[in-house]
Structure to design on (138 residues):
């Protein structure tokens, strides 16, 4: 091991987590790095719905309006924008300023994550949904 790598390893074990450059990682950068390394990233229901709605690029207000049409609870700016920011930090969405508005778009990584999350959701809730729908039929 080179002296530099040895010193970094020593610092990491002595002072907690360090980056490759020997700098202390912030909690955010660690979570982003872990999320990018974990293909099984679990999304919350709102984050999954946001990704689903971003199959087509949308600006924030249009996204909030679309979410409010499908949810029983009201999605506000105070709920939507932190969720979008988190998805952006994870590399799942990106935004582009168009005039005074930001248009949000799902990244290829976001699409893969959304598809995996939807598959997991369907697998997890298949029995519940099937039983609920079948009970309604009788």
């Amino acid at each position: 091991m080179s002296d530099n790598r040895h010193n970094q390893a020593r610092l990491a074990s002595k002072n907690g987590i360090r980056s490759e450059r020997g700098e202390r990682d912030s909690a955010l950068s660690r979570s982003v790095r872990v999320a990018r390394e974990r293909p099984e990233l679990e999304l919350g229901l709102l984050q999954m719905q946001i990704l689903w709605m971003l199959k087509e690029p949308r600006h924030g207000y249009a996204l909030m309006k679309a979410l409010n049409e499908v949810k029983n609870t009201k999605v506000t700016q105070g709920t939507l924008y932190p969720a979008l920011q988190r998805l952006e930090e994870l590399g799942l969405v990106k935004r582009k300023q168009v005039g005074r508005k930001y248009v949000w778009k799902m990244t290829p990584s976001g699409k893969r994550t959304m598809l995996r999350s939807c598959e997991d959701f369907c697998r997890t809730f298949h029995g519940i949904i099937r039983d609920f729908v079948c009970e309604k039929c009788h």
Observations:
- The domain at 43-130 is CATH 1.10.10.10 (Arc Repressor Mutant, subunit A).
- The CA atoms of residues 93 and 106 lie 4 Å apart.
- Residues 1-25, 30-40 have pLDDT under 50 and may be disordered.
- The chain has two domains: 1-37, 43-130.
